[in-house]
Design goal:
heterotrimer, A mainly alpha (217), B alpha/beta (277), C alpha/beta (267), A: 217 residues, mainly alpha, 10 helices, 84% helix, extended, C: 267 residues, alpha/beta, Rossmann fold, 5-stranded parallel sheet
Chain lengths: 217, 277, 267
């Protein structure tokens, strides 16, 4: 392994873990304990975190530019669309810098293009919902029968036509959501929370090699 | 007679017809006010003059459009009370969404409304970091944000004089998808009341928070809740428009459910052949 | 920027948080105990997870059909633990796919995930012993950061490339319906996993195998077949057992009028 590879590996493994340990302990201390110094440290770390998050946006953009430029130069499949994407990214960046991100021109352009298309896509979700529901909501076993009955109940009880003719429908649907439904949902959320905590501990211990990019080779 | 299995495009064709029905045949559904919606209305109505209302969360514009119905009605309500509204965009598009809602509510003086920007309401810029930015903001507002969305220093905005930390916030209104982050931190950690104009999927997932923090959190149910809030404010908007579509798609849901199960029982036997769409 | 930190003079614990801190420390201790036991030779087996077996079956299916595998790590960013689980799974699936000459493509959403994905895929090729086959931009596709731009791009890619298996693992919302329906149309084996409650129900509509909640974290440990990572799952189970006992005790004692468990939890 060359010296550069060794240095790179040292930075990716040891230094990363040291930084993780320090920031984790600071964040945990700031969350559970209170003191002016800890609060100031936490606020400072939060601000650094926000700066790093903003910085990662640019890293991703640079990666995309390298990848797409290579694809365009080699005329791979769909290269015109990648060229279009590169040009469009550059145009929006220049427009944002020139007119201001919150200018009326930029906002109007954003609303007229991206958001309009997004609304259109959201509008078509119902097609996917209903075709998937038609295909999968079949009563083949007791479990699927219970699923179908409760799904039907929730849809019907929340419908305006039901609510306007039967005032108790609102309370029944709320009870179903927040008693049997909540029990299952809380189980998933609690277990996910514990799982996430253990994942963080695994990263802290250096066991999550993919996450830390500390794999050999 | 054997029933054929419908292909996806055939289902979509029927759904398209369902899409068009409310446009040509208005059903004129009227919403029934739920207790949560009434509580939100009463909470806002009882705010003392000079109260600071934070309005924000994380969401995408198109998805939050469903809850814009409730927020626009609430902004109209608040414009009649002497309260200050600070918009807090936690995701990038929330800033545009906030601007859209304020413009749609016609509360700014440029539309003949009573509000003046900087004195009665302000839109902060996008604050990155999600929960990290939120906690930083709640602990020290002036250290987290230094300008509004247009680059004006907040020292030049009178509305920000009285906002230094979470202690100065009276109520938090959220009309975004990621309201659960607001619930967990703003109410869970700092005890501030949160009024959430939630999308229906958010309501179904997080409606139980009203039981976890009774009296501190009220959540409306998607476009239905928006229609209810519009009715409380004697107006009609996107919420009311969505009611008719809701009825049509409920009927379609029931229809396809029944048809699918009948097809399963009496349909053509395809053997191992997978239905291609 | 120089960080000036004077000596910490007075630290007071925040009210109602000490129990949470105790659980966090206990979780770390139990995980470390499990890890130590694993180092001494103790092994654990994870209960059969159909989705885990299906992943291997799917890679074999892809090799037979001569079609690629597609992996979606979700729409979350690097701060999201679900995205971390998805990236770990990406590395494992890619390594297994490379060994049997199955290309594994991924479509991330956030731009920082693009960079992380490229790095993980490159490492996976190295671990599989075929670093020369890796090409920048060939296996990581990016269609946009926005949720539905990403979903529509992914759906189009599925319809064009017809992957044999599609794996969803990470933070998803309604976008999974778009890509899942596309996968159903091309007859792909679909495996989905997320900890988000609303997306699980949508995944159930279009996926053949589902991983719910903390199963996504368990499966990323199990698929590595690393005894130390599997040991951490054992530690996780001990914590869950303890919390279960506390919950049952809390319910029974509260019903009997004793609020001691509740008071303890709000310490």
């Amino acid at each position: 392994m060359s010296t550069m590879d060794s240095v790179s590996r040292f930075i990716r493994t040891r230094i990363t873990r040291i930084v993780i340990v320090i920031t984790l302990l600071s964040a945990v201390a700031g969350y559970f304990f209170s003191s002016p110094e800890l609060n100031a440290l936490n606020t400072e770390l939060n601000l650094w975190n926000m700066n790093i998050i903003t910085f990662t946006l640019f890293i991703g953009l640079i990666t995309i530019y390298f990848s797409y430029s290579k694809s365009v130069s080699q005329r791979t499949t769909n290269w015109p669309f990648r060229l279009y994407a590169l040009v469009l990214i550059a145009v929006w960046i220049v427009m944002g810098l020139y007119s201001g991100l919150y200018s009326d021109m930029y906002q109007t352009a954003f609303l007229s293009t991206k958001i309009t298309l997004h609304i259109a896509i959201l509008g078509q979700l119902i097609f996917f919902y209903l075709s998937a529901m038609y295909r999968t909501f079949r009563v083949k076993t007791l479990r699927t029968g219970i699923l179908v009955i409760f799904a039907l109940a929730m849809v019907v009880l929340n419908s305006p036509i039901t609510l306007s003719n039967w005032s108790a429908a609102d309370q029944i649907s709320y009870w179903l959501l927040n008693n049997p439904g909540m029990g299952g949902a809380r189980a998933v959320v609690l277990a996910s929370g514990v799982g996430g905590m253990i994942l963080a501990i695994r990263i802290f211990m250096g066991l999550e090699k993919s996450a830390l990019r500390a794999a050999g080779g | 007679m054997k029933l054929p299995e419908l292909q996806a495009r055939q289902v979509w064709a029927i759904v398209l017809i369902g899409y068009l029905i409310p446009a040509f045949i208005p059903l004129g559904m009227s919403p029934v006010i739920s207790s949560a919606t009434q509580n939100i209305y009463d909470t806002i109505q009882s705010l003392p003059p000079g109260s600071i209302v934070m309005c924000g969360g994380g969401g995408v514009f198109a998805f939050d459009l469903e809850s814009s119905a409730g927020l626009i009605a609430a902004l109209k309500q608040m414009s009649k009370l002497n309260v200050k509204v600070v918009f807090y965009p936690m995701w990038i598009e929330t800033m545009q969404f906030s601007k859209y809602c304020v413009d749609s509510a016609r509360v700014d003086e440029k539309f003949g409304g009573p509000w003046k920007y900087g004195r009665d309401y302000v839109i902060l810029p996008y604050i990155p970091g999600n929960e990290v930015g939120l906690v930083s903001f709640l602990n020290d507002v002036k250290k987290t944000v230094s300008t509004d969305y247009a680059g004006t220093p907040i020292s030049q905005l009178p509305i920000m004089d009285g906002l230094n930390s979470y202690k100065d916030i009276d109520v938090w209104i959220c009309a975004q998808w990621d309201g659960v982050t607001i619930l967990r931190y703003v109410t869970g950690e700092y005890g501030i009341k949160v009024l959430w104009f939630a999308q229906s999927s958010a309501y179904s997932a997080f409606g139980s928070y009203m039981q976890v923090y009774p009296g501190k959190i009220y959540i409306t149910n998607g476009a239905l809740g928006g229609a209810q809030y519009e009715k409380l404010n004697a107006m009609k908007g996107l919420g009311h428009a969505a009611l008719d579509s809701n009825v049509v798609f409920t009927l379609l849901f029931i229809g396809f459910l029944v048809l699918g199960n009948i097809t399963m029982l009496y349909g053509e036997k395809n053997g191992n052949k997978k239905v291609k769409t | 920027m120089i960080l000036q930190i004077p000596l910490i003079e007075q630290i007071t614990p925040k009210a109602g948080q000490m129990f949470n801190l105790a659980i966090l420390i206990l979780a770390g201790v139990l995980v470390y105990v499990a890890y130590s036991l694993a180092k001494q030779g103790r092994t654990w087996t994870i209960r059969p997870m159909e989705a885990l077996d299906a992943i291997q079956e799917g890679i074999g299916r892809a090799a037979e059909m001569g079609r690629p595998v597609l992996m979606f790590p979700g729409i979350g960013n690097l701060q999201n633990p679900q995205t971390m689980a998805g990236l770990t799974m990406l590395g494992e699936i890619t390594e297994r796919g490379v060994k049997v000459n199955v290309p594994v493509n991924t479509i991330p959403s956030a731009t920082e995930i693009v960079t992380a994905s490229e790095s993980i895929v490159r490492d996976a090729y190295s671990r599989a012993g075929k670093p020369e086959l890796y090409e920048l931009g060939k296996y990581v596709k990016w269609f946009g950061t926005d949720q539905f731009v990403y979903a529509v791009g992914g759906a189009g890619y599925i319809l064009a490339e017809k992957p044999a298996m599609v794996v969803f693992l990470g933070y998803f919302l309604a976008d999974v319906l778009v890509t899942g329906e596309a996968g159903s149309r091309v007859g792909a084996l679909q495996i989905g996993g997320t900890a988000d409650q609303s997306a699980v129900s949508l995944m159930a509509l279009c996926c053949d195998y589902i991983l719910m909640g903390e199963e996504i974290y368990a499966v990323t440990a199990a698929i590595t077949e690393d005894k130390y990572q599997i040991a951490t799952i054992a530690g996780e189970d001990w914590i869950k057992a303890l919390l279960l006992v506390l919950m049952v005790a809390g319910v029974l004692l509260t019903a009997a009028g004793l609020k001691s468990v509740i008071s303890f939890m709000w310490w």
